[in-house]
Amino acid sequence: MPRGVGILGGTFDPIHLAHLRVAEEVREAEDLAEIRLVPAAVPPHKAGRAVTDAAHRLRMAQLAADGVPGFRVWDVELTRRGPSYSVDTLRTLRDELGADARVVFVLGRDAFADFATWREPEAILGLADLVVVTRPPWPETLRIADFPVAAQGALRYDPGSECIRHASGRRVRLLPITALDVSATALRARVAAGRSIRFLVPASVEDYIRRHRLYTEEDAAR
User: Fold this and answer.
1) What is the pLDDT of residues 2-34, one digit of tens each?
2) pTM assigned to the model
3) Which CATH number covers residue 57?
4) Distance between terminal CA atoms of the chain?
C-alpha cells in the first residue's frame, strides 16, 4: 500500500488530546507519510453557534502539532471564502498531489451518520479513501446501507481487504480507536467555570488559552 496524506478536519475549538490521538492512530494504521489537521473556517453543521476566531483556532492547532513527526496544520479552509466543505478541500488536495496519490479522509462514526447530508458525498467517495473512526462501544461493521442511497450502487464489499470499495477503487474502512472521553464543548465549559484543563489539551494549548483568556466570560464579552 503506497504511503499517502491524511486529512482530519474539525472546528478545533479548542484542539485537544483526543483529536491528536485520532490523527496518530490513523497515521499509524494507514501508514501515512503525513496527516494534515484542517481547522474549519465556517463549519456548515455548526451554523448558529458562535465559533472562536479562526486565527486563535489555527494557532492552537499549530502549537499542538509543533514538533510532532508526520503532523502538519493546513489552513486551506481558512483562506477560502464561504462555508468549509470537505469536498472542496479534497479537490484542492488532489490538485496539489495529483490523481494517483493516496489520500485518506478521516471522519468520526457520528459524523458519518450524517454523511448523506454533506455536500457531494458521492464525489467525496471518489476522491479519497475514507477511514471512519469509532470508539467503544464499537459498531462491528460498516454496511453499504449506511451510505447515501445515490452512492450505494457504486459500492461493494471487498472480502480481501474487509473494506467497502467504491467504483473508483477508493476504499472505506471502520477503524476502532482508543477511547478518550474529551470534548471541546466540555473543555470550554471547564474553562468558563475556572476549572483545570491540564492533561486534556497539550500544555502549549493550555497556556495559549490562558494567556488569551479564551472561553471566559471576558472572552465572550469581547
Assistant:
1) 689 999 999 999 999 999 999 999 999 999 999
2) 0.92
3) 3.40.50.620
4) 50
